[in-house]
Amino acid sequence: MIIALNDVIDQYCPNLKKYLEENPDIDRMVKTDNGTYFAFPFIRGEERLCFTVGSFLRQDWLDELGLAVPTTIDEWHDVLVAFKEKKGASAPLCYDYINFKGSNPFAFAYGVGTANNSSFVLDENGEIAYAYARDSYRDYLTTMNQWYQEGLIDADFATLNGDQVTAKMTTDQAGASVGWAASRMQLFMTTAQAENPDYLLVPAPQPAAKAGETPLYAYAENRFPDVGAAITGSCENVELAARFLDYGYSEEGHNLFNFGTEGVSYNWEGDRAVYTETITDNEDGWPIAQALAKHIRANYNGPFVQDLNYLEQYLQLETAKLCPETWGVATAREHTMPPVTPTEEESKELATIMNELGTYVDEMALKFIFGTESLDNWDNYIRTLENMNLSRALEIEKGALERYNAR
Amino acid sequence: MKKYTGDRIKKDFQRNWSLYLLVIPVIIFYAIFMYKPMYGAIIAFMDYTPAKGVSGSDWVGFANFTRFFSSPYFVRLLRNTILLSVYSIVFGFPAPIILALLLNEVGNKKFKKISQTVTYLPHFVSMVVICGMIKDFCLSTGLINDIIAFFGGERVPLLQDPKYFRTIYTVSSIWQEVGWGSIIYLSALSGVDSQLYEAASIDGAGKWKQTLHVTIPGIMPTIIVMLILRMGSLMSMGYEKTILLYNSAIYETADIISSYVYRVGLIDQDWSYSTAIGLFNSVINCALLVITNMISKRTTENSLW
Predict the structure, then answer these.
(1) Which of A16, A353, B145, B223 is the most buried (most CB within 10 A)?
(2) Residue A387: closest CA among chain B residues belongs to which residue?
(3) Is B48-300 assigned to CATH 1.10.3720.10?
């Protein structure tokens, strides 16, 4: 059993208390509907740290073909066709569907992308919608199906894993992918540039469904991604535990968690902490991710506030640095479901509905994309979702959202 | 039947205490890792939440079971599990016997040793690696498709089409286990009396007839015991291989009870429900074991107990 932290935070945690008071948006995420705190939260310090997934493609190929970075679904289509026909890419767009089935920017173009393990989005009117039942989801599937049939998406993309994507992206079999800035895009570049110095990837902005439209939706993680430390009822010295966990929110603790030890892993240059060569150019040849892991926690999580300065240095390559800025969309947060909490009873019911829906939706998505199920059966699909009690799930989420907003 | 009284056991213990000592670790192992966890199975009848713990959660009777039986996936999961199991018995069970018989006939010692090593090898490779290889082989640009394309066929992403999954699963399982499985039969084969072969050949039996009338009856008890054990695990298809190979495009044939339990229990954290499904699975396994043993006892006089 973990204990409620309200009194504990009041008494022993001046740093966390101060942070939560100064950031009511985060405060709302951390506490429950009735105002109880249970966690010393991991917090992403700025919005920009939340745009962690997006698309990127070969700039050197675009230059060679005289094409611009695509900004709409149609432009993407043209680019992918050019990659296939003129550059001989067998799988122009290649990503591991398992990891990005809901979070890829093409889904967000149609307002049906999902983040934070939720299947719900907030639509143009601020209403809750189940992403995979929206009318525009059909348009998304139609596009994906078309791309798949034309051979623009990797034929095996449902079974691919990260290593296979890496292999294809770094050997000219694929020209565009979806993923994270450092552990994918930057990694692909450092790997491929050893063989081909001209190899260059650039992030593409969140595409719009149609020319002239402004993209409204994008992948945005919650500032409090539901990770934190807690104190259990069997803890003998709650005060000590609380003071220890509060340290991460102090200035000193902040620097320790984000930059490590001064003089070893970072130095001050003006008022900016800059990683030393131990991190950026490790003497034992460690890649930066590994070198960071030895000294800091910012590339994982913990009871502290993640600093944007960490990410800016973690992304070493010029074009990789552009990712958060390029992928982000100002209105993305408005359309992202916040971390609501259904009541205990509701969550049982919701879990039952959602795991039945989840299996069906996952299965049908690929059938529609592969074309083994015709999109003419769309109405049938929607009816099945209704039969699986989708409307009850929506009702529960709606109630939970109202309670969340009232926090 | 001997009658064991306390006195007898005591006497036996005095005489064979060293053997009892040897068996202690095994008993502890079973008690800790096999019997103690069974206590946890009672959460199948509860509305379990970790906050309340096993002792504090509410009893819900058979609600979790009812939920599974009325789930839209129940029939499909059961069918997939049974079919994969049946395939693995129909094709997978005889495979090591056939391999053992073949190896037994090989005269060239070096060739025999090499064949054995080659067929054992996949057994020692971790499941994750094996499945990674299978996935690679099954890509539209993979080995199997290279062969298909060489003979003029069309390339298909094999693991994205529900109709190939059972074949891939069964064939790869044979590849993994055929060598290892054949060891027990090879040792049984070495125990067949060579005089029987002499007698058979004097009677004019060729190699084929000898195999049919001497070898196979000779290793029959081993085969039966192995079959009974295998039947007991008919429904306990491990989830590891399935979740490593499948994707949502092929749930139709690939989703089995244990992989569903994995998704519901570990990913969606619906512990009581997944425990109920697992328990249902175990009950069927247990029943199958008892039934097979009974049939075997009646028909062949070989049995486990």
Answers:
(1) A16
(2) B72
(3) yes
pLDDT value, residue B4: 62
**Pairing verdict, β A128-130 and A266-269:** unpaired
- Our CA-based measurement puts residue A154 at a distance from the nearest CA of chain B, in whole angstroms, of 9
Contact criterion met (CB < 8 Å) for A359 and B71: no
Nearest-angstrom CA–CA distance, A39 and A42:
9
Model pLDDT, residue B44: 87
pTM of the full structure: 0.85
Answer yes or no: is pLDDT of B300 > 80.
Answer: no
Report ipTM for this prediction.
0.78
CB contact under 8 A, B270 and A159: no
Integer distance in angstroms from the first to the last C-alpha of chain B? 13
A 128-157 → B contacts, CB under 8 A = 155-156
Our measurement of the distance from residue A57's CA atom to the centroid of its chain's CA atoms, rounded to an integer in Å, reads: 18
Reading the block at residue A202, the tokens are 């650039």
Q: Exposure of A127 by Cβ count < 10 A (0-12 exposed, 13-18 middle, 19+ buried)?
A: exposed
Cα separation, A246 vs A231, in Å, equals: 12
Per-domain boundaries in chain A: 47-233+305-407, 261-295
- CB B72 to CB A1 under 8 A? no
CATH of domain A47-233+305-407: 3.40.190.10
Q: Of A157, A152, A150, A209, which is closest to residue A179 (Cα–Cα)? A: A157
Residue A359, min C-alpha distance to chain B (Å): 7
- Examine the pLDDT at A313 and tell me if it is beyond 60: yes
Average of per-residue pLDDT values in chain B = 87
What whole-number distance in Å separates Cα of residue A108 and Cα of residue A120? 12
CB of B290 closer than 8 Å to CB of B228: no
Query: Structural domain boundaries of chain B?
Result: 48-300
**E strands, A257-394, in order:** 266-269, 272-275, 305-306
- DSSP run (H or E) holding B128: helix B127-138
Residue range B202-221, pLDDT digits in tens: 888 888 888 888 888 889 88
